[in-house]
Design a protein that fits this description.
Layout: H1 2-18, H2 23-34, E1 42-44, E2 51-61, E3 70-71, E4 74-75, H3 78-104, E5 109-119, E6 122-131, E7 142-146, E8 151-156, E9 159-167, H4 170-173, E10 182-193, H5 204-215, E11 221-229, H6 235-241, E12 248-252, E13 260-269, H7 272-292, E14 297-301, E15 311-317, E16 333-341, E17 344-354, E18 356-359, E19 365-369, E20 372-375
Parallel strand pairs: 11-19
Antiparallel strand pairs: 1-2, 1-14, 2-10, 3-4, 5-6, 6-9, 7-8, 9-10, 11-13, 12-18, 13-17, 14-15, 15-16, 16-17, 19-20
């Protein structure tokens, strides 16, 4: 046990080292994480170039002037007012720091494109930068021409950032100060180790064997769900003709894929402590596996996350194909995802191949084959 603990500590240190990128980006992330704006980053080796780090910051700006905050004609009490203003201040801080960092990154840019429009109550900001990177080359910087403003937009490179901001209609925002006056989205993506490209399929069978003792815990409430659609099933037509509850919460659909199937094991916890303990055990297995097999194809989150949105904390995939850039759907893949629903904590272990999808009504569904659904008698 002591040896395993030391192993995990060394692995965590290794992943932290790998996650270091441009110092200005590192500083931005650290500052926004301290404010609770940045949550996690992803390390993945299933894209061109090697092991990549990526993170995304979504922010909302508010009318944070010092006048009283009103709701339905009444002001908030002092405690609520203070909490709201603190949140608004953090969002404004993030916006200003992102803008400052983007300006500083101009010196590190291989290519830099920026567009701003501020007129008649409309505010738009678009910035994309391909950074100088040890794996950089002109041929590997991909961009397109934005027809609306005739600006080049970098959408893939060895290392790149993008920021988009657009304001809300002033008429809408003026009706309620709790409506954001604008929305911003910052994305970073960069190679941190070009030697760690996923050149092998992830060994799903071994990983599932490693976590099987964890899943045998009889105190965990669990059930399975099987989803499948055949190659000739028209998923697009189906989605256009059925009510929302018969659709999917998430899909990974690629044109020409030969159908797909997903085998879910869903774990439910009413204790957050127990949920986090089990998730940590599973992700420890994942981290140990990728440390021992660094060129198997994977994606891993920097932290074990539970949130109201469906979140992927780990994925093991078939390897990157240099010619098609898509999986051939010939082998099993696995994803570990989490979600918090009505004060319960869920862990999803999904072994799948081909097109992968999660039904909206997953707490009740036993099987979902083409357009035929079989339900459990009760909700998980």
């Amino acid at each position: 046990m002591k040896r395993l603990f030391l192993y995990i500590i060394l692995l965590a240190a290794q992943l932290t080292c790998l996650a270091q990128t441009n110092p200005k980006i590192d500083s931005l992330y650290a500052n926004l994480k301290a404010k609770g704006i940045a949550k996690t980053y992803i390390l993945r080796n299933n894209e061109k170039g090697g092991l990549r780090k990526e993170f995304n910051i979504f922010l909302q700006l508010y009318d944070d002037n010092p006048s009283p905050i009103m709701y339905q004609g009444k002001t908030f009490n002092a405690k609520s007012d203070s909490m709201i203003r603190a949140k608004w201040a953090n969002e404004r801080y993030a916006y200003n720091l992102i803008r400052k960092t983007l300006a500083e990154l101009a010196d590190d840019a291989a290519e830099y494109y920026s567009y701003e429009y501020h007129q008649n109550g409309a505010d738009t900001i678009i910035t994309t930068i391909a950074l100088k990177n040890r794996a950089n080359s002109d041929s590997s910087i991909r961009k397109y021409k934005n027809q609306g403003n005739n600006m080049n937009v970098v959408f893939f490179a060895p290392e790149f950032v993008s920021f988009n901001y657009k304001n809300t209609s002033p008429k809408v925002a003026s009706t309620n100060r709790q409506i954001p006056i604008g929305y911003g989205n910052f994305t970073y993506n960069g190679i941190v180790d070009s030697t760690l490209l996923g050149t092998k399929d992830f060994n799903v069978k071994k990983f599932m064997k490693d976590i099987s003792p964890i899943l045998k815990d009889k105190t965990i409430k669990k059930r399975t769900m099987f989803c499948k659609h055949d190659p000739d099933f028209n998923l697009r037509t189906y989605l256009a003709t059925v009510p929302a509850e018969r659709r999917f919460l998430s899909t990974s659909t690629i044109d020409g894929a030969p159908g797909g199937e997903s085998n879910y094991t869903i774990l439910k916890f009413t204790s957050e402590r127990k949920a986090r303990e089990v998730l940590r055990q599973i992700t420890d297995c994942a981290r140990r596996h990728i440390a021992e097999n660094p060129n198997e194809t994977y994606s891993i989150c920097s932290e074990d996350v539970f949130s109201p949105s469906h979140t992927t904390v780990f994925g093991g995939y078939d390897h990157y194909n240099e010619t098609s850039q898509y999986s051939k759907f010939a082998t099993d893949c696995v994803e570990i995802t989490t979600e918090v629903i009505k004060n319960s904590f869920y862990i999803f272990i999904n072994v799948f191949k081909g097109e992968n999808y999660l039904p909206c009504d997953f707490l009740k569904i036993k099987s979902f084959i083409n357009d035929k659904i079989e339900y459990y008698d009760d909700e998980l």
